[in-house]
């Protein structure tokens, strides 16, 4: 029966079979987790009390501070920050949790997993915290203590936690250097025996892409939760030993600058990676060169090249993993194949764990092994590659489930969001690859030509693979559809889209008539100018969140060092999105803050940030330098009156003011009961005296 199916159905079936397998695994895993002991929400104060007399941000022992306490459903992660940027992490888990070693210290409610290797100062700090927990651990904190994990899953969870912990300690600057070296090596292999003009052309494309991104890409926050979320690739740079060494000699830098320059470095690398990916996929360096040129000029990629979001580094890691996979399968050089295979597991693991939806690449990589030229890759290499992909996916899966459990449950319990898939595919404002306001029409036309040309030439496996890749991520992102956010969401589609366009460009040039040189030159010129033609899209920072970001960064230098800034936190008990806390955070041998943030909460909200000074404490003992800020949080909150009352209760001298139109980039941030207002007023004032 199988052989009578159409070729398209046979080639697309691996996508759907693997997607169903992945969804079944996610459903089973979340169901098993629900039967396990867990820490319910609302017990943050009790958890923080475990570490008394030590408090967040306060000293512990030997130069170490209690930096962070992260409360997850099945564990509590505790981070200690030491001298020279050192970081040590402890985990408190359920006594029946087999992720803990047999000799792990035991308290009334927890087993404490200590770091494997500690020097005397680190051990003293960890033992001081351990003694505090033993002394304070009196009341039961776990709900439904009936662990239901099978032995195999326990071992997998334990191994996954160890791998994640180790990979989080990688120095981000060293990682970037390794990525550049690996991309350069693979590009060199693709350029072997190619005409000499290709190397300088590739160098010009990379340098031109860097120049365009430096001058045209806006340095702004363009993602979700930009004032609180810190992606792994950024924290690896900010907390790494190389950054500590650099800042120790040249002075500390703002965390916002580290974010901008880290993602810019990833963005500049992308054309080089795209060259390797396209060359190995098509076994044609001309396709790779055209793909590198397309991504260097693509307005959508340029726009996010200096933003805080993680799509740009995600494209680098996933495409570099593809290039390494192709090199392992087909490169004639044994040393290159070996290096490519050794680099494959870390690239896969880093890409799977960088952002949640990247778990879908587990399907894409496996389908690539099945459909893309299996006859030219020896069976044992394909089996080893499949093993590396599956192992990396299994190691990443427990962390993915732990951090996305509620979203997975919601997606699996209500499939009505699938009705949005046709809307996304057919509406240009949502499928931005077909939107001429975002994507040059020439690229969309070439991609359509690529589908037709490859299908006509019977290279149907490649075209169906690339179309399946696009469809898979369109479906994945259809759970959240916002017109303003679509250019960011659709970044997952950039690579297969440009590969289709590149394949079409080369195939068209081969079969075109005498005037092909003129047509090709005009097309390349138009695409070269597209960054300037799309400047209005690239530098559109008219959204309220981006305007506020620019305002906060502009006025932060007007606030003297060490001043306190009062901000309204609304219904956020953790005060996670305080603007001046993130804007004033600095990276150096030790993390430091230019400002002391003072959150004010909506009535009825119980703050969960005991180390931060409260407004009441400030009123009793006023600092010499105190500012107050009215920001967007006042308008996004369900109850803005406390924010307005706050300003009315303080006597302050206005330092800066800006009125902005209410045009939200991420409408998920506004409370459902709130209505849009015509404008938002940002005010920064210096408090003259307290009542």
What does this structure look like?
The chain has 691 residues and is an alpha+beta fold. 55% of the residues lie in helices and 11% in strands. The strands form three sheets. Strands 1-2-3-4-5 form a five-stranded antiparallel β-sheet. β2 and β3 form a beta hairpin. The longest helix has 35 residues. The protein is globular, with a radius of gyration of 27 Å. The N terminus is likely disordered.
Let me know the average pLDDT.
Answer: 85
Radius of gyration, CA atoms, in whole angstroms = 27 Å
Class by helix and strand content? alpha+beta
Distance between the termini: 84 Å
* Biggest sheet, spatial arrangement of strands: 1-2-3-4-5
Basic shape: globular
Tell me the strand percentage band: 5-15%
In total, the number of strands is 13
Low-confidence stretches: 1-13, 20-35, 145-152
Range of helix content: 40-55%
Strand count, sense and barrel status of the largest sheet are:
5 strands, antiparallel
Question: Count of helical segments?
Answer: 27
What are the main properties of this structure?
691 residues, alpha+beta, disordered N terminus, single chain, 27 helices, 11% strand
């Amino acid at each position: 029966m199988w052989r009578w199916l159409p070729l398209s159905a046979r080639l697309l079936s691996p996508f759907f079979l693997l997607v169903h397998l992945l969804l079944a695994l996610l459903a089973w895993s979340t169901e098993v987790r629900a039967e396990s002991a867990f820490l319910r929400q609302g017990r943050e104060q009790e958890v923080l009390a475990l570490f008394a007399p030590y408090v967040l941000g306060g000293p512990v022992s030997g130069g170490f501070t209690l930096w962070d306490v992260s409360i997850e459903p099945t564990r509590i992660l505790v981070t200690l920050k030491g001298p020279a940027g050192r970081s040590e992490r402890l985990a408190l888990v359920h006594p029946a949790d087999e992720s803990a070693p047999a000799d792990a210290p035991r308290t009334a409610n927890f087993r404490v997993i200590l770091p494997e290797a500690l020097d005397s100062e680190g051990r003293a700090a960890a033992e001081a915290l351990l003694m505090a927990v033993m002394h304070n651990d009196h009341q039961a904190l776990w709900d439904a203590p009936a662990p239901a994990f099978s032995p195999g899953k326990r071992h997998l969870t334990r191994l996954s936690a160890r791998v994640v912990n180790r990979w989080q300690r990688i120095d981000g600057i060293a990682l970037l250097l390794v990525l550049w070296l690996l991309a350069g090596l693979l590009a060199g292999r693709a350029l072997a025996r190619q005409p000499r003009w290709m190397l300088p052309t590739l160098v010009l494309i990379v340098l031109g892409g860097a120049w365009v991104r430096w001058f045209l890409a806006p340095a702004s926050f363009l993602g979700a939760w930009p004032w609180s979320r810190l992606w792994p690739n950024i924290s690896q740079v900010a907390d790494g030993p190389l950054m500590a060494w650099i800042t120790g000699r040249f002075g500390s830098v703002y965390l916002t600058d580290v974010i901008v320059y880290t993602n810019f470095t990833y963005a500049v690398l992308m054309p080089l990676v795209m060259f390797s990916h396209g060359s190995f996929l098509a076994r044609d360096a001309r396709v790779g060169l055209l793909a590198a040129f397309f991504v260097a000029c693509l307005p959508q990629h340029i726009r996010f090249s200096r933003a805080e979001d993680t799509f740009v580094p995600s494209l680098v890691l996933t495409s570099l993993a593809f290039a390494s996979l192709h090199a392992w399968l087909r490169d004639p050089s044994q040393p290159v194949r070996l290096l490519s295979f050794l680099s494959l597991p870390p690239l896969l693991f880093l890409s799977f764990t960088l952002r949640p939806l990247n778990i879908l690449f587990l399907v894409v990589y496996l389908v690539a092994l099945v459909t893309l030229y299996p006859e030219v890759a020896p069976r044992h290499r394909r089996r080893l590659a499949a093993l590396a992909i599956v192992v990396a996916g299994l190691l990443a899966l427990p962390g993915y489930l732990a951090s996305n459990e509620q979203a997975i449950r919601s997606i699996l319990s209500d499939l009505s969001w699938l009705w949005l898939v046709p809307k996304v595919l057919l509406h240009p404002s949502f499928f931005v690859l077909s939107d001429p306001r975002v994507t040059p029409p020439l690229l969309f036309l070439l991609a359509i030509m690529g589908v037709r040309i490859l299908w006509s030439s019977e290279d149907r496996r490649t075209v169906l693979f690339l179309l399946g890749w696009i469809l898979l991520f369109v479906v994945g992102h259809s759970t959240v559809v916002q017109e303003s956010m679509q250019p960011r969401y659709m970044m997952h589609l950039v690579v297969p889209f440009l590969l289709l366009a590149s394949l079409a460009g080369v195939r068209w040039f081969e079969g075109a008539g005498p005037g092909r040189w003129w047509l090709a030159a005009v097309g390349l010129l138009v695409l070269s100018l597209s960054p300037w033609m799309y400047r209005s899209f690239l530098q559109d920072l008219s959204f309220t969140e981006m305007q506020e970001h620019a305002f906060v960064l502009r006025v932060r230098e007007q606030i003297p060092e060490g001043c306190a800034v009062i901000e309204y936190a609304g219904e956020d008990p953790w005060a996670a999105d305080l603007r001046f806390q993130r804007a004033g955070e600095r990276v150096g041998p030790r993390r430091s803050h230019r400002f002391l943030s003072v959150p004010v909460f909506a009535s009825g909200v119980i703050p969960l940030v005991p180390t931060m000074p409260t407004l009441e404490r400030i009123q009793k003992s006023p600092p010499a330098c105190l500012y107050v800020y009215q920001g967007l949080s006042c308008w996004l909150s369900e109850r803005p009156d406390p924010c307005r009352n706050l300003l009315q209760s303080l006597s302050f001298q206005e330092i800066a003011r800006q009125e902005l139109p209410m045009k939200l980039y991420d409408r998920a941030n506004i409370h459902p009961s709130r209505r849009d207002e015509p404008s938002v007023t940002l005010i920064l004032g210096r408090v003259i005296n307290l009542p």
